[in-house]
Fold this sequence. Notes:
Blueprint: H1 2-27, H2 39-42, H3 47-51, H4 55-63, H5 69-74, E1 76-77, E2 80-94, E3 99-110, E4 115-125, E5 128-129, E6 135-145, E7 148-155, E8 162-168, E9 181-183, E10 186-188, H6 193-200, E11 207-209, E12 212-219
Antiparallel strand pairs: 1-2, 2-3, 2-12, 3-4, 4-5, 4-6, 6-7, 7-8, 8-9, 8-10, 9-11
Amino acid sequence: MKRNIIYTCTLFAxxxxxxCTKEIEHNTPKYLDLQGLTLDxxxxxxxxxxADIGIPEMESLLSTSIISQDELISREDExxxxxEYVNGFTSQTFEDIDLQRIIIFWAKKYEDGYVExxxxxxRYNSGQYDVATSGTGDVxxxxxxxxxxxxxxxxxSGDIGGSAWRFQDNGNYVYTATEDLxxxxxxxxxxxxxxxxxFYTVDDPVMQPIDYGFVNIITQ
Length: 220
């Protein structure tokens, strides 16, 4: 009888240990190792990869993507010299609706007006990656006025055609609290939204503080 009680208690303890271990493994976030990657290389990441990105890893990613004004002036290709450059990693948390929104982007403008770039939008609802509202796209235009940029593009995932943001670079390149601002995304099924937004540079939507990250605006 005593041996049966000891056996039962031991078995219960082992089952409890296994259960706790599985729970710990389930709740431990798995982050993609982005050490050494550039923003250009992020274009090749899949949506599944992006779902595992953790904020600590984004520091090493973004630190390799900032270019100086001297570097900007020296770069040139078939479109002529590179004249403007914007990029950023912005994380905003809205506790009242339990939402975290992460926007990653870069875009280049050349002397002949040609623009290339990309953006990624990651949304986490109640801590869970939301595939339906996350997305990817190309940047097709941007306009810079002083330290504010209006950026537009096309969605390459999902059904929405045009996307646009505006953001403000307040010169703070730290990866913790920042004074930089970014708006929510403006979306419209008509792809022409991007060109209209970049051309008219309206003061809408309202820009809000970034919890973590930065935006970077460089012009000649």
